[in-house]
Amino acid sequence: MFRNLVSVSFILAMSVLSISGTVSAEDQSKGWTADPDLVKKFESRSSSNNGGRDFIYSEEKVPEYSLPDILTTDAGEKVTTVKEWESTRRPEILELFRKHVYGRNPVGRPEQMSFDVYDVDPKAMDGKATRKQVKITFENNGKSLSVNVVIFIPNDAEHPVPAYLLICNRDKTNIDPTRENKIEYWPAEEIVARGYAAVAFHNADIDPDDYDKFQNGIHGVLDEGERHDDAWATLAAWAWGASRVLDYLETDRMIDAEHVAVVGHSRGGKTSLWAGATDERFAMVVSNNSGCGGAALSRRQYGETVGRINRAFPHWFCEKFSEYNENESEIPVDQHMLLALAAPRLLYVTSANEDLWADPRGEFLSCKEASTAYEIYGKTGLGTNQIPALNEPVQQGNIGYHVRSGGHGLTLYDWTQFMNFTDKHWKKR
Ligand code: GTR
Predict the structure, then answer these.
(1) SS3 content of the chain, % helix, strand, coil (to 5)
(2) Residue 120: phi, psi to the nearest 5?
(3) How far is CA 391 from the centre of its chain?
(4) Gap from CA of 267 to ligand 1 centroid (Å)
(5) Does 425 qualify as catalytic in the annotation?
(6) Count of structural domains, the chain
(7) Is the overall model pTM greater than 0.70, yes or no?
(8) CA torsion angle for 23, 26, 31, 35 (degrees, to 10)?
């Protein structure tokens, strides 16, 4: 358990939570902790692009910080009912993330969008699946952009089937429609064997993953006029793209669009959280090894920091977010509030024990804090305050979490846990 440092005034204590970076002996004995040798190894790397600060990898160096309270409105009132959460606090938090972190997506579907199902193979995967490929095309002012969607639907299942939609942020061979390349990152055969449709698109189809001053991709097609400091950037564009794929899935009779999990790894895992926050049609959000700007708490400054991420990837977040470089305590939100926007839907967050850059403990703490939003609905969020041991997934509530052994990556182990979790909730085993 984290010790509460009584260092804030009573009034402040009503709206923020004060947490120190100290991990108690009890916590260390039970749950996962970072391997001290690995911590030393990370600490010995030089710290560049971090505003003159050293990167933090030991809990002792995590500064004391106060988290904004999920349930206290901007006016200082505590929200206690679903109605107050949905009509006041949830929209407030969403707006804070739009304004300060991810920027403002265009709302909903664009006027000119079409779906072309150009490839159907009912005997894919040795007859086990139907493969479809769909081209989604957006047009505006004489410009157009197309996104390719790869879909495998189990044949031996009662249709419509629930689906996993992966935002692929690695190269396209990872979501190979021919299945010559089978990679754990997208284990389509295993997903199909478990009775789920495997759906994927490549993030760069929507927006290139480089700083092009928002001239290309969907920005080049849809954006008009001057850019403001809360204009949508690249992560928001990818998230919006995931929603457009869901628009297609809603038209496909073989898919149960009310049970679609949006999945992302790393930069894709930051994106899936924003997709789930902005589009409540997603029944589940999966954020794998997402770290800074994803599930990890920014105020801990552990591993990658806000300043570093904004300098290294100036196209990911809205411009306003860079005002918080080396100034995390001034962000009006922290990432536990982004996770809370998934409530009361299913949420699954993962860490990997060698992925200290992504701050496994910070990812866990976000899940723990986000649980209060689930409790408003009378539901269990994570259901524990204790970080689990390595490879011991927590799946007792509506938030799932695990720390896997190994490095930064999306593996068959991770996918297996996601499907165990949805089997429990969606198949009522
Ligand atoms: C890293 C970046 C992380 C994470 C990762 C990835 O370079 O610092 O925030 O997004 O890339 O996407 O693999």
Answers:
(1) 35, 20, 40
(2) -135, 120
(3) 20
(4) 6
(5) no
(6) 1
(7) yes
(8) 60
